[in-house]
């Protein structure tokens, strides 16, 4: 049997998003970390979420495919902005 479980969920948290160029912006974000299980055996873990810029301006999406650093609510994650208000986590979410 295959199933996906939510391991952690963060809703409407305050944080900062920093580009590789050092530009930092205040954000609010929601993040969901999920893990797949096949017959009770843990498999792929993935995380994604939504982000809103506190200044109301648009986000920036790098054209070189680089990640941004999201910090807030006790976590740190390298993320890819995927358009609009969505992001995918590039690596494991780290606890601070």
Number of separate strands: 7
Rg, Cα atoms, Å? 14 Å
Tally of helical segments: 0
Main sheet: strands, sense, barrel: 6 strands, antiparallel, barrel
* Helix share, percent: under 10%
Task: Describe this structure as you would to a colleague.
There is one protein chain. It is elongated, with a radius of gyration of 14 Å. It has strands spanning 2-18, 24-38, 41-53, 68-72, 75-83, 86-89, 94-95. A hairpin with a 2-residue loop joins strand 2 and strand 3 (41-53). The protein has one domain. The chain contains no helices and seven strands. It is 0% helix and 68% strand. The relative contact order is 0.25. The model has no long low-confidence stretch (mean pLDDT 90). The chain has a six-stranded antiparallel β-barrel. It is mostly beta strands.
Give the structure's gist in a few sentences:
It is built from no helices and seven strands.
